Amino acid sequence: MSDTPETPDAPDTKPSFRGDVTVELVKHAAADSDVLWAARVSTAGEQSLEELSKDPERSKGLINFLMRDRHGSPFEHNSMTFFISAPIFVFREFMRHRVGWSYNEESGRYRELQPVFYVPGPERKLVQRGRPGKYVFVEGTPEQQELAGRAMERSYLQAYEAYQDMLAAGVAREVARSVLPVGLFSSMYATCNARSLMHFLGLRTQHEQAKVPSFPQREIEMVGERMEEHWARLMPLTHAAFNANGRVAP
Asked: Between 24 and which of 83, 97, 128, 199 could a Cys-Cys bridge form, CB atoms 3.0 to 4.6 Å apart?
């Protein structure tokens, strides 16, 4: 996470509430051929992309072999940078993923943070049943949904009003931000390679083909699902092999 100064935008202090996230692929150098090139250099020396693509079935088989037998380094020779806008609590989970990731998050020290807050949508399951390590989430009642939304919005507005009062009184942004809740939206650039992304997806998404069960919080899973959609289009053979081999990072 970076505290590099940014030029502040003109503030728009009208509060808004969101139940979704934003994930955009802003740049990339990632293709299945990157995996093939990295893997084959050890046995065949440097090869051109044309040579690598001569035998599609052989290429597919090699990627599957690397994934199945967990030869991971060939999946690191690529790069994807995502722009992500999500609640702060999502980023606190996200940044537990440190190997193969780089982050730059917007800074509340140098810009006035905007009043965009997370309120679960009606599709978000609200009720947890079962003991830790063995629980499920089930649908909430309309009353619970209404209560959660009302309580969150009231709390958010009160916190943001206190933030604005302190700023107006001349309190530094880095101090005033302390009253803001983790449901506030932040934004960041996150850069990774296919191997680090696969590890993230194995932990932060649920999938019927996964060998190892995962129990992610729904909001970070929403981010993971959108990242996976972008990655699958860039590296379809690698993505297919990831699924075929139990969604375990090599």
From this structure: 83
Active-site entry in 40, 154, 173, 204? 204
204: annotated active-site residue: yes
For residue range 106-154, list pLDDT tens digits in order: 999 999 999 999 999 999 999 999 887 778 899 999 999 999 999 999 9
CATH number (domain holding residue 114): 3.30.1360.170
Tokens 């992500």 -> residue: 84
pTM to 2 decimals?
0.89
pLDDT band at 1 (very low <50, low <70, confident <90, very high): very low
User: Does the residue 104 lie in any domain?
Assistant: yes
Q: Which residues are annotated as a binding site for dUMP?
A: 93-96, 105-109, 177, 204
Percent of residues, the chain, with pLDDT higher than 70 = 90
User: Which residues, in sequence order, are CB contacts of 114 under 8 Å at separation 6+?
Assistant: 11, 12, 13, 185
**Does residue 179 sit within a domain?**
no
Residue 170 lies in a domain: no
Domain of 26 in residue numbering reads as: 16-119+185-244
Which residue ranges make up the annotated binding site?
73, 93-98, 105-109, 177, 193-195, 199, 204
Q: Does residue 177 lie within any of the structural domains? A: no
Number of domains in the chain: 1
CB 163 within 8 A of CB 176: yes
